[in-house]
Amino acid sequence: MLIVKKFGGTSVADKERIFNVAKRCIRDYQNGNDVVVVLSAMGKYTDELIAKAKEINPNPSKREMDMLFTIGEQMSVSLMAMAMDALGVRAISLNAFQVAMHTTSNYSNARLKKIDTERIRRELDDRKIVIVTGFQGINKYNDYTTLGRGGSDTTAVALAAALHADACEIYTDVDGVYTADPRLVPTARKLNAITYDEMLDLATLGAGVLHNRSVEMAKKYGVPLVVRSSLNESEGTVVKEVVKKMERMLISGVALDKDADRISVIGIKDAPGSAFKLFNTLAKKNINVDIIIQSVGREGTKDISFTVAHDNLKEAIELLEEYQEVLGFERVDYNCEVAKLSIVGAGMMSNPGVAAKMFECLYNENVNINMIATSEIRITVLVNSEDAVRAMNAVHDAFGLAEA
Amino acid sequence: MLIVKKFGGTSVADKERIFNVAKRCIRDYQNGNDVVVVLSAMGKYTDELIAKAKEINPNPSKREMDMLFTIGEQMSVSLMAMAMDALGVRAISLNAFQVAMHTTSNYSNARLKKIDTERIRRELDDRKIVIVTGFQGINKYNDYTTLGRGGSDTTAVALAAALHADACEIYTDVDGVYTADPRLVPTARKLNAITYDEMLDLATLGAGVLHNRSVEMAKKYGVPLVVRSSLNESEGTVVKEVVKKMERMLISGVALDKDADRISVIGIKDAPGSAFKLFNTLAKKNINVDIIIQSVGREGTKDISFTVAHDNLKEAIELLEEYQEVLGFERVDYNCEVAKLSIVGAGMMSNPGVAAKMFECLYNENVNINMIATSEIRITVLVNSEDAVRAMNAVHDAFGLAEA
Fold first, then answer.
1. Residue A255 — φ and ψ, nearest 5°?
2. Which residues of chain A are at the B interface, by a Cβ-Cβ cutoff of 8 Å?
3. Minimal-distance CA residue of chain B relative to A99
4. Which residue from A258, A251, A259 is spatially nearest to A395, judged by alpha carbons?
5. What domains appear along chain A, each with residue ranges and CATH number?
6. Residues A331-346 pLDDT 10s
7. Which positions are annotated as binding ATP (chains A, B) (predicted)?
8. A8 pairs with which residues across the strands?
């Protein structure tokens, strides 16, 4: 078996943790597997580098920031190789240049294009554990790039795809994907398996332990993912294309996103293009909007409501007020005391009663639904913050997620 | 003009110093020159990296140490590029991969083989200041190597040679090469110019501000070197092939090396090979010996004396005692209260009276000479420690170095 194992920054934050990771990798190696390890920068090291840079230049160029950032993973991988060596196992560290990890040219947010596997294969054939820097790549100018958020996960999945690995294990501080956040839903249960699409929706909803870029790539190349804990030996959650019927439930998880504020634009002209103009104004300022509903207002007007992340609320309101005349609406209104509650499940595609069941459950709990949005495999409702956790638990239980 | 400027770790140890260096480089750039900057790791950063490594593995592989070390210079160069950018000047940082700085394959002590200049030329043509990592290279395996002691100086000289630079300026914490260490000889005077050979001898004698590897390379490729202070605007010392007669003195400098202990092997058999066996035994343990004299002993024996660095004394004595029977000598004797005093000067080649003048001066000062060694352009004597500084000042004055 060829196994790619990815460990995040907290897993390599100090000497003890580095040795824990080393031992875990060595066990697979000594069982006869080929092992490729992908590492992030140690603990808060990236934050330290940002602080160093900002001290010199409050607005450093992305090219030079990437040049600076990439030293973080290079430190992790060389120290890991030394740790494995201290444990008597041959290991070698490789950075983005040495692997040849080709990316697009945009700094700070590059996308992987092609990974050369020759050097890694050679080192594996030589029976070494190969330790690769996550998060970083090189572009056509032969400059360092970084992959942006979730970058090391993406490196691991891409390496697994390029090497046709038998498994790609992503180690985190939780022991898998849960039916809901266990801190909010005491009966939440760890899932043994979940589909790529379900994982993608959970990731997008902020409930995911994986960044959606890495899940998208795993789906695209059919890389078998496992999300496991770096702290214990629990089996983790397998993420794959199709989850066998027996273990598949109607829905896989319930996610709650408290970072959502509702904005309502009241009395906008009911004319073609008014919604376009409204959202175009916001998009130009990079303000992402989520759930949108439109309702009929009075006298040839309509009301449009949508949600934004809390960080964008102030700017969005100011922007709308600035453009009030151009957009032609009566007034703007907002509510911060709301949360998005979602259920996700590939099973709902073939079960039309799922939405009704969710709404019934919320009605029984006396939870008011402010807005609704649906996709093929998820249903999201906007509820009042004070109801959110209670609603989440009710829905979780109504769909029998605690029992499995 | 194309100018290569090299700054050591103390010159880039903090934000203020980084900006000082940046401004200094920008001045040359704004005067219309092409500027290439070579940097070492910041302050004590390399020591911090060694500590991190030793914590993980007391005996780390050299390959992985080099992988770890190279992040130090990468940090310096990216921060410097950000500083220049903050000052409104276009700059770009490049590491050993990006330049393509080819070295021999031996880790921790590689030698530069070939430097590609294409990327640097392109960036210079684009009117950028190019900031290059010193000390590091890549070998035929595409792995990082480091150049060992004096590595960043060597990088700067090699780059200057490859780019046919008009000047290679080495910035240090002293403002040039002196006729003697000013802390010991109050009348010591800064030299405006010195030959490569003189500089080499001074470097070897521990009085140099440049590592002899970089001087050797400068000599080989005829790179015009300047040693200058990073702290002030003083002109510094030019190191070149031939120093014009007018400014050339009989001797250029007086050097004192206190790190020398004398060992005497008394009553060794006066037979062929006995000296060879003696020094071969020491060489096998990597103990370097310096000044050697041999004198006739009693009854078919001889005495051999030599100097070693103080760190090697204990091991050398133990080794000699261990091999006493094999080497066949009577006893071993040593003296730590000695120092090596040297005069260096290309002028002495054509002036046979120099040695006599030095000895006369020491005689007048009542300084006993224990041992003597000479080369074409230097004379070294071993004196008692208590006489050393007095002797040094006397010689310095006798040769008129204070006046120039």
1. -120, 145
2. 15, 18-19, 49, 52-53, 55-58, 60-61, 63-65, 67-68, 70-71, 74-75, 77-79, 81-83, 85-86, 92-93, 95, 97-98, 119, 142-143
3. B142
4. A251
5. 2-172 (3.40.1160.10)
6. 999 999 999 999 988 8
7. 6-9, 172-173, 178, 183
8. none
Tokens of B329: 């000598």
For residue B22, pLDDT beyond 60: yes
Work out the pLDDT band at B374, boundaries 50, 70, 90: confident
Q: Strand order of the sheet with strand B261-269?
A: B289-296, B301-308, B261-269, B331-335
Nearest CA in chain A to B139: A98
Amino acid occupying residue B133: T
Radius of gyration of chain A measured on its C-alpha atoms: 24
Residue A393 CA to residue A333 CA, distance in Å, equals 30
Q: Tell me the C-alpha distance between A135 and A45, whole Å.
A: 14
What is the tens place of the pLDDT at every residue in A11-36?
999 999 999 999 999 999 999 999 99
Question: How many helices (DSSP H) and strands (DSSP E) are in chain B?
Answer: 13, 20
* Cβ within 8 Å, pair A78-B97: no
Which ranges constitute the DSSP H helices of A269-371?
A: 274-284, 310-322, 324-327, 354-364
**Residue-wise pLDDT tens digits, A159-218:** 999 999 999 999 988 888 888 888 889 998 888 888 898 888 887 665 567 888 899 999
Q: Tokens 């030394």: give the residue.
A: A82
Distance CA B350, CA B372 (A): 20
Q: Do A79 and B61 touch (CB under 8 A)?
A: no
